[in-house]
Amino acid sequence: MNSKYVLMLVHVDKNFVDVAGNEFPLEGFVESNEFTNDKDLRYGLLGVPWGKTFEFIYDRIEDGEWFVLKTQIDDNFITIDSYHNQVKFKNGFILCHGNIKQCAEFIIKNKNDVKQGYLIEASFIKEKEIAGSEEWINIYNF
Question: Which terminus of the chain has fewer Cβ atoms in its 10 Å neighbourhood, N or C?
């Protein structure tokens, strides 16, 4: 059975802590302190699959830090807000850390790598749909 993975764009504050209080290392594996299989944001990691969103939830995207995590799509992959494309998940491997532009570039460069187990659907995502890409920033005036 082939695993299916997704790249998640994740925002944390300047202390590398997310909205649920999970601390992020600069590399390696990160897991929710407490995970519940529901839509409660206090118990899980929160991210945007492939960074794909048309309406961004953060007012100031330059604040804080950004990560790209590789996570498996499984029973612990819960859609929180389909309009903003927000998903709650249990854990992931840190593949990139930097500002939102650097993370968007990483996603754009790597999303088509099916050898990594990424969903084939990612190849259809356009650069202008990925938060932080040059095209996305120009469209949404960030």
Answer: N
Average pLDDT over residues 64-89: 92
State the first-to-last Cα distance of the chain, in angstroms, to the nearest integer.
41
Note whether 62 and 100 are within 8 A (CB). yes
Q: What's the pLDDT band for 1 if we cut at 50, 70, 90?
A: very low
Q: Which two tokens stand for residue 121?
A: 């659907």
Q: Which two tokens stand for residue 141?
A: 């005036």
Instruction: Spell out the residues 6+ positions from residue 132 whose beta carbon is closer than 8 angstroms to its own.
Output: 9, 51, 61, 66, 99, 100, 101, 103, 104, 105
Tell if the pTM clears 0.85, that is, is over it.
yes
Domain that residue 86 falls in: 5-140
Q: How many domains does the chain have?
A: 1
Q: Locate tokens 């993975």: which residue?
A: 5
Q: Return the structure tokens found at 126.
A: 């356009």
In this predicted structure, the answer to whether residue 50 has a pLDDT above a threshold of 50 is: yes
- The predicted pLDDT at position 54 comes to 74
